[in-house]
Amino acid sequence: MPTIGDVALVCKSKNAGPFEVTIDAVFADRETFDKVNASGVLCPELFAKLYKVRPEDVLFTVYEAGLAFKATLPRLVPAGDLGDTDVYGAQQHAPLLAVEVPV
To answer: What is the distance between the alpha carbons of residues 25 and 6, in angstroms, rounded to a whole number?
Structure first.
């Protein structure tokens, strides 16, 4: 089964302030986006599981016009704090890349 890393045009993350990170998955065409969307794989519960936060703390948005999904969630370690390994939040999308999707 293909993974998000296989089918997404872009998968990226960045800080949404020092206490949150935003993760985006963007698709190149409507057909792939619609299949991923219909599968229900990308959802708040998935991000909660991958990033060890509560599902109710995940702000999940489907942007149909942009063929994209966005999840904003709390950082476990604030940006720049002792123990932070990614001050910009730029590598936080990596766990999403391995998620399998039925497309």
So the answer is: 11
